[in-house]
Amino acid sequence: MTGRIGFMFVSGLAGLALVVPSQGSQWEFLLMGFASGAALGGLVVMAEYALQRASFGVIVGATSGLTVGLVLTGLIEWASSAIVDVEAFLFHIGRLVCLLGLSYLGIVLGARFGRAYIGGPAGRVEPASISGISEGKKILDTSVIIDGRVADLCETGFLEGTLLVPQFILHELQHIADSSDSLKRARGRRGLDILNKIQKMVDIDVRIVDDDFPNVKEVDSKLVVLAKKIGAKVITNDLNLNKVAELQGVRVLNINEISNALRPVVLPGETIRVFILKEGKEAGQGVAYLDDGTMIVVDNARWQIGRHVDVTVTSVLQTTAGRMIFTRLKDDSEQEDIQVARG
């Protein structure tokens, strides 16, 4: 920012230096020269700022369009000079209109073409190119990017279509990565690494979306508004965002629900081998865990802590916190079956 202000000040001094030789030291001419130079420097700074925010495709398209507009202006002027008197006032007016009009049209049409067909670095696109995606649009939430499991899903090929990452999600990731808290900083950098990993996958189309909604403050609310606007689904593992999006008619793909659906199916009567890790809440109970973290409660297994045992499933309880499997030692189940048979 300081460099830009300095450039505008130097431009003002340059304008001042150009005025002094011809107009003398009259203060009104000095002020006009300085203001003109500073204004010209401000225009250059604005152009530099706009070029920083514009994608590569927009820059190439606008430059090409401007070149075509100037060439067409020259051709029209050359052709009309043989018909109209060059010194005529209307000829100069028409030349000015062609110069400004064709240059403007060239920049606008060229920028639009470049935005839609050339794109930019890291798959950058504008809203106009998003409308060309007919179906399969999915928006990634900040939490699901940091989680990282979405990258594993992309590698398996189960996620199809185009993955969209809004600019405000990137800004939130960058803000987390720049946090003074070491844990938040690590999470933010992990999210950026995961996103970079997904972008490098050959079969995955990742696009950056520039749509923003200044009137909406919360990032989750912006995600829902954007999803409704472009007809996309939201990929997340945030339960609150899941509920809010569904209430507003937005389809949500929850990574946690996918994980729960892929857990091993255990039915009553099956025998599984587990490691008794600790004592349960009830007297004599032992507790074990499956590889996915599912808790297994084993009756009369307290004395088996620290051992691998075979257990028989008696019931499965699904709760909001997850799934619990109740079992008993296989030997106890066999003894009970024998007694029932004899009875």
| CATH topology grouping of the largest domain | Rossmann fold
CATH architecture of the largest domain: 3-Layer(aba) Sandwich
Provide the β-strand percentage band: 15-25%
Tell me the major beta sheet: 6 strands, parallel
Mean pLDDT, nearest integer? 76
Helix/strand-derived category reads alpha/beta
Question: Can you offer a commentary on this structure?
Answer:
With 343 residues, this protein is α/β, with parallel strands linked by helices. It has three domains: 118 residues, no CATH class; 138 residues, Rossmann fold (3-Layer(aba) Sandwich); 72 residues, Beta Barrel (OB fold (Dihydrolipoamide Acetyltransferase, E2P)). The protein contains 13 helices and twelve strands.
Quick structural gist:
The protein is of the alpha/beta class. Helix content is 56%, strand content 17%. The chain folds into 3 domains: 2-119, no CATH class; 124-261, Rossmann fold; 271-342, OB fold (Dihydrolipoamide Acetyltransferase, E2P) (Beta Barrel), CATH 2.40.50.140.
